[in-house]
Design goal:
Layout lengths: L4 E7 L3 E10 L2 E11 L3 E2 L2 E2 L2 H19 L5 E6 L5 E10 L7 H11 L8 E13 L2 E4 L9 E12 H13 L3 E7 H9 L2 H6 L1 E6 L4 E7 L2 E8 L3 H12 L3 H11 L12 E4 L8 E4 H26 L9 E4 L8 H9 L3 E3 L6 E2 L1 H4 L5 H13 L15 H16 L1
Parallel strand pairs: 1-6, 3-19, 6-11, 12-17, 17-18
Antiparallel strand pairs: 1-2, 2-3, 4-5, 7-10, 8-9, 8-10, 12-13, 13-14, 15-16
Helix pairs in contact: 1-3, 4-11, 6-7, 6-8, 8-9
């Protein structure tokens, strides 16, 4: 295929998903999708290299077959409890009295000049807004006259080992990693509108191993967090509570599961397979709903507390969008609406063409978002900072110091 292709690789706890996007002028057409059950991750972190590599290869091969191309590089998503996000601010003097790209680079460097532990890797440095001579709310300060430039940024870091393992798995699967991207950031690109990001919205990516939170306002990310709880915890509760196997518990959750205990057909009987050759039993659907309700409510309440703790609960005029595979659970938007006190909707991938009927599912939000992120980062003005580097930690720190001394001198 002669057109430029971008591949998003969602390395999740329950599934690996590869989505191939074709860049056509200003639009992105989805031309290939591949999925395979994930084996080798726990709560978003790689715990078995070989199993993860096998799952990646299977998903990529399926996407290659559908798209009719060879996949060599990917934009890979990352999540897990090791992910930490925080806000920072930098200040510089404008040398030429007119803000240039060099000034923007310097103020971003000033904002990230803080003590980051050597066992952590900076994944993103995301500008929130610029302030020129006290005038705030500036998205692009280049060309504006002033003597004082400030930048507010959101910095996302992850454990060096977790990032390295993601890269290693991709490399062993025969893939280069163009960039590592926070999964909730990618999901936001796929399911949120510009208006929602402007007015304020909370995105909840409810996956199998983790639940990711990202709060957007004024077209920038204000807060991010990752909770090491997800849909697998609901499955485990069902397996323990109903004394059945995990695969059967997952089937029960997907077929009969509901977050609401106020079911009209709560007395409807469902068949629960027994363990170790024991006979199946018939239980009411209401019992299953009660088990799911307790865990889902706990997860949403933790997210609600995180939103309040962040201090950005007030600007969320657009409410909440829930995406990810586990968001398909019946009654989840209604439960979240009650807990958050805000209008809540499921987030489906938007803004792409091609195989829209195939990817019209919240489970594909992250992979589609990675493709959109890759298409956006092709711009030379892109300021997202992370790229895979061959240098070790010592040389990265040394280069930072050399650059700092040059500026001082």
């Amino acid at each position: 295929m002669s057109q430029e292709l971008i591949v998003g690789l969602d390395i999740g706890t329950t599934k690996i998903c590869a989505v191939v996007g074709e860049i056509a002028d200003t639009s992105v057409e989805i031309v290939g999708v591949g999925t395979h059950p994930s084996q080798g991750l726990r709560k978003g972190v790689v715990v078995n290299i070989e199993n993860t590599v096998k799952s990646i290869r299977k998903a990529v091969e399926e996407a290659e077959l559908m798209a009719g191309c060879e996949i060599r590089s990917v934009f890979a998503g990352i999540a897990g409890g090791h992910i930490k996000g925080f806000n920072s601010q930098g200040l510089i003097a404008v040398k030429s009295r007119e803000v240039t790209q060099a000034d923007v680079t310097r103020v971003i460097d000033a904002a990230k000049a803080m003590a980051i532990p050597l066992d952590r890797e900076v994944i993103h440095i995301l500008p929130q807004e610029y302030i020129v001579d006290g005038q705030d709310g500036i998205n692009d300060p280049i060309g504006i006259h002033g003597v004082r430039l400030e930048a507010k940024v959101h910095i996302v870091t992850g454990a060096v080992t977790a990032v390295s393992n993601i890269i290693k798995c991709c490399n062993k699967a025969g893939l280069d990693v163009s960039d590592i991207v926070l999964q909730s950031l990618a999901s936001g690109d796929a399911v949120l509108t510009d208006e929602e990001k402007e007015l304020g919205v909370a995105l909840i990516d409810f996956g199998g191993g983790t639940t990711d939170l990202a709060i957007f306002s004024n077209n920038s990310i204000k807060h991010s967090a990752v909770l090491a709880l997800g849909g697998n915890n609901l499955t485990n509760d069902i397996a323990v509570g109903l004394q059945t196997s995990l695969p059967e518990a997952e089937k029960l959750k997907q077929t009969w599961g509901c977050c609401l205990t106020t079911l009209e057909d709560r007395e409807e009987q469902i068949e629960v397979p027994g363990l170790g050759g024991r006979k199946s039993r018939n239980l009411s659907r209401g019992i299953l709903a009660e088990i799911i309700h307790l865990r889902a409510k706990e997860i949403m309440e933790i997210i609600h507390k995180e939103i309040i703790r962040s201090g950005f609960a007030i600007p969320m005029i657009s409410g909440v969008a829930i995406t990810g595979g586990s968001s398909l659970l019946a009654g989840l938007p209604e439960l979240a609406d009650d807990i958050f006190g805000l209008p809540t909707r499921r987030g489906y991938p938007i803004g792409v063409g091609g195989l829209t009927d195939v990817i019209n599912n919240p489970a594909f939000a992250t992979a589609v978002g990675l493709v959109l992120y890759g298409a956006r980062s092709r711009s030379p003005r892109s300021r997202d900072s992370f790229r895979i580097r061959d240098q070790n930690i010592f040389y990265r720190v040394l280069n930072r110091m050399k650059k700092w001394f040059k500026e001082v001198i």
